[in-house]
């Protein structure tokens, strides 16, 4: 195995696994630290999905080190720490503490940090992160329920999370190609920097960074900065030929969307699905908390729906409704109430004949995939940037699309089904 990856959430792991597979690496995604029983010998890259983005830093470090240990035992030559393309974190972590721990684990003293993902509108210029052209602190991420991002200067953001000196490799160096980037790394290292934020505005920048970073024992970032790594490890100058595969073999069975994300992209996708007549059941967090509504209510509704068309169960709501629920139930409790309901619903799905499942939201995907007892996934074709179809590698045979909250076009829920055979 060339590359062992540790992702701080499930949909982020899928995003990275898609990038590596698309660029020519045989990639397997595991849910949690892989057990000895899982055969990883045919994989060029393994992506371990953790749920460590918002847990206490000490736990995130412990889980990340356990994953690193398992990946090293399975033969990983390089490590990649994947976090969100919007750098989701707080002043306590977990990007800084986990990076520090993995640097020590790999016995190295230098790495880069680059969340840029131009295909999804994330760019870094002079160390500032932009989301669709808007500085991070002015984007919808400023109001994220768990990790509100109020500073777009990533050098500052990361420096608050780590005692290691943080530096910057700017656009001019990145734009000049891999040799200039390597020189910039050396310059920053000589100045005592241990982690450098790296600017990137285009896929060409990301590929150049990949080539410059291929010798580093540890790389950190979003899925974008992994773009150039497969070619660099192969010793190719050119990227893998782009895939024209737009269909995916899925087990036959019923189709369902479970949406627990309240991001603006998911709100729009739910709206488009309901407007086009997808039968939909709305989970009401207050009714779930009082017991007036249960997973059984949704399952009873489900049993009345035609088996011939996809259905939608969602808790997706606008920010003011979410804030109102959070005020009344508490932020964490509100999330857990909804996640528990969606997990209970998911557990009943295979017996009800559902084998094709789309889930919206990272935390939601974690809850659903755990309920379905999924251990590992193979990676299929891209539905939209950062979101592939996947298929379970053991246990119940399922086709799963795990969508990061903010990813996907408005018609994502409709076009995803069209790819399945
Ligand atoms: N109507 C609601 N009111 C309050 N909380 C909700 C509501 N619907 C969902 N939630 C909770 O909000 C959280 C959404 O997080 P999730 O990670 O699933 O989505 P996201 O943050 O948009 O996605 P990503 O992490 O991929 O960017 C979950 O904990 C979910 O249970
Ligand atoms: O990088 C991203 O934006 C996503 O893969 C993600 O991590 C969302 O949770």
Task: Describe this entry's structure for a reader.
The chain has 421 residues and is an alpha/beta fold. It folds into 2 domains: 3-234, Putative sugar-binding, N-terminal domain (Rossmann fold, 3-Layer(aba) Sandwich); 254-418, 3-Layer(aba) Sandwich (Molybdenum Cofactor Biosythetic Enzyme, Chain A), CATH 3.40.980. It is 37% helix and 20% strand. The chain has 15 helices and 18 strands. It has helices at 10-22, 57-73, 95-105, 154-159, 171-175, 178-190, 203-213, 229-234, 264-275, 285-290, 295-303, 319-329, 331-348, 362-371, 412-418; strands at residues 3-7, 27-31, 45-49, 78-82, 111-114, 122-125, 128-131, 134-135, 166-169, 195-198, 218-221, 254-259, 280-282, 311-314, 354-360, 376-384, 387-392, 399-403. Strands 9-10-5-11-4-1-3-2-16-17-18-15-12-14-13 form a 15-stranded mixed β-sheet, sandwiched between helices. Strand 7 and strand 8 (134-135) form a beta hairpin. Helix 6 crosses helix 7 (203-213) and helix 11 (295-303) runs parallel beside helix 13. The longest helix is centred in the C-terminal third of the chain and has 18 residues, at 331-348. It is globular and about 65 Å long. The two termini are 31 Å apart. Bound molecules: adenosine-5'-triphosphate and the ligand O=C(O)[C@@H](O)C(=O)CO. Adenosine-5'-triphosphate (ATP) binds at residues 9, 11, 260-263, 285, 315, 317, 322, 325-326, 334-335, 338-339, 361-364, 404-406. The ligand O=C(O)[C@@H](O)C(=O)CO binds at residues 9, 11-12, 15, 84-86, 222-223, 362, 386, 404.
């Amino acid at each position: 195995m060339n590359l062992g990856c540790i992702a701080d959430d499930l949909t982020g792991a899928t995003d990275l696994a898609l990038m590596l597979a698309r660029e020519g690496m045989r990639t397997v995604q595991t849910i949690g630290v892989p057990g000895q029983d899982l055969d990883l010998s045919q994989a060029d890259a393994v992506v371990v999905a953790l749920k460590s983005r918002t847990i206490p830093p000490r736990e995130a470090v412990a889980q990340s080190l356990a994953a690193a240990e398992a990946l090293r035992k399975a033969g990983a030559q390089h490590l990649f720490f994947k976090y969100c393309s919007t750098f989701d974190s707080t002043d306590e972590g977990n990007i800084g503490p986990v990076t520090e721990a993995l640097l020590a684990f790999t016995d190295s003293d230098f790495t880069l940090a680059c969340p840029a993902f131009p295909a999804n509108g994330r760019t870094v210029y002079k160390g500032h992160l932009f989301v669709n052209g808007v500085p991070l602190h002015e984007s919808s991420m400023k109001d994220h329920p768990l990790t509100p991002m109020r500073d777009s200067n990533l050098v500052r953001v990361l420096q608050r999370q780590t005692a290691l000196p943080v530096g910057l490799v700017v656009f001019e160096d990145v734009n000049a190609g891999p040799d200039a980037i390597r020189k910039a790394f050396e310059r920053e290292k000589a100045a005592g920097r241990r982690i450098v934020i790296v600017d990137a505005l285009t896929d060409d920048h990301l590929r150049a960074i990949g080539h410059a970073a291929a010798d580093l024992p540890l790389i950190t970032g979003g899925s974008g900065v992994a773009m150039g790594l497969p070619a660099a490890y192969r010793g190719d100058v050119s990227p893998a030929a782009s895939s024209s595969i737009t269909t995916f073999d899925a087990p036959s069975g019923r189709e369902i969307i479970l949406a627990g994300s309240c991001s603006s992209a998911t709100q729009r996708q739910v709206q488009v699905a309901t407007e086009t007549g997808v039968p939909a059941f709305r989970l009401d967090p207050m009714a779930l908390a009082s017991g007036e509504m249960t997973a059984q209510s949704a399952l009873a509704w489900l049993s009345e729906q035609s088996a011939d068309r996809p259905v939608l169960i969602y808790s997706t709501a606008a920010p003011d409704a979410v804030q109102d629920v959070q005020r009344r139930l508490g932020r964490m409790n509100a999330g857990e109430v909804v996640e528990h309901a969606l997990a209970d619903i998911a557990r009943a799905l295979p017996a009800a004949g559902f084998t094709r499942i789309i889930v919206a939201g990272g935390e939601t995907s974690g809850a659903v995939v755990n309920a379905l007892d999924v251990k590992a996934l193979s990676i299929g074709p891209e539905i939209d940037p950062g979101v592939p179809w996947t298929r379970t590698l053991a246990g119940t045979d399922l086709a799963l699309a795990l969508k990061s909250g903010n990813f996907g076009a408005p018609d994502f829920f409709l076009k995803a089904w069209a790819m399945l055979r």
